[in-house]
Design brief:
Blueprint lengths: L1 H9 L2 H4 L4 E3 L2 E21 L5 E22 L2 E6 L3 H29 L1
Antiparallel strand pairs: 1-2, 2-3, 3-4
Length: 114
C-alpha cells in the first residue's frame, strides 16, 4: 500500500502540463501523455519435497512522452502537436518491408507461369 501512495505523488498535473515558459508576450505550456501502472501479489505452496514456502512481490511503472505545447499569444490559444520522428521512421520501414514482400510474391508468381 505504501507503493500505491507514493505512486499518487508521481502522477501530478505538473508531470502532464510542464511549467509555463514566458518570452515577451508569448506563453508556452508543454503537455505530455502520462501512463502509470502497478501490481503486486503473493503466494504460498508446497514444493515437490513437501516443504512449505511462499513469496510476494510488487512493481510500479511510469512513462511520459511529449504530446505538444499550447501557445498563448494575444489572448488566443493554439495547440502545436509534437512530432515523433521515430514513429514516422518506423512506420515508413514497415510499409517498405510489406511492399518488398508483396513485390517478391508477385515476381515469383510470374516466373512460375513462364
Amino acid at each position: 500500500m505504501e507503493l500505491v501512495e507514493k505512486s499518487k505523488d508521481a502522477a501530478t498535473v505538473k508531470r502532464v502540463f510542464g511549467e509555463p515558459i514566458q518570452h515577451g508576450d508569448v506563453v508556452v505550456i508543454p503537455v505530455a501523455r502520462v501512463a502509470q501502472g502497478g501490481g503486486g501479489g503473493q503466494g504460498q505452496g508446497k514444493s515437490e519435497k513437501g516443504e512449505e514456502g511462499g513469496g510476494s512481490g510488487g512493481g510500479f511503472g511510469f512513462g511520459a512522452t511529449p504530446a505538444g505545447v499550447y501557445v498563448l499569444k494575444d489572448n488566443d490559444a493554439h495547440w502545436r502537436p509534437a512530432v515523433d520522428v521515430n514513429r514516422i521512421v518506423i512506420g515508413g520501414q514497415i510499409v517498405a518491408v510489406v511492399l518488398l514482400l508483396t513485390l517478391r510474391t508477385i515476381f515469383k508468381k510470374r516466373r512460375r507461369r513462364r
